[in-house]
Amino acid sequence: MDLTRAAWRKSTRSNANGGACVEVADNLPDVIAVRDSKDPAGPVLAFTPASWRSFVAACPTPR
């Protein structure tokens, strides 16, 4: 998978102290990519747009 054009953005729920940070790239055709911001060269999870919507819908809403 070619992620060279991925525009990564940090989750709004990321911790301000540099921990628990998730980045998402949703600007690529047909794929939503997710990675750990502390390890940008590390593994990436790849979702289809439909599976990403299902994943997000299944996540509990923070209080």
UniProtKB/TrEMBL annotation:
Residues 6-58 form the DUF397 domain. InterPro entries: DUF397. It comes from the Bacteria. This is DUF397 domain-containing protein. It comes from Micromonospora thermarum. The lineage of its organism: Bacteria, Bacillati, Actinomycetota, Actinomycetes, Micromonosporales.
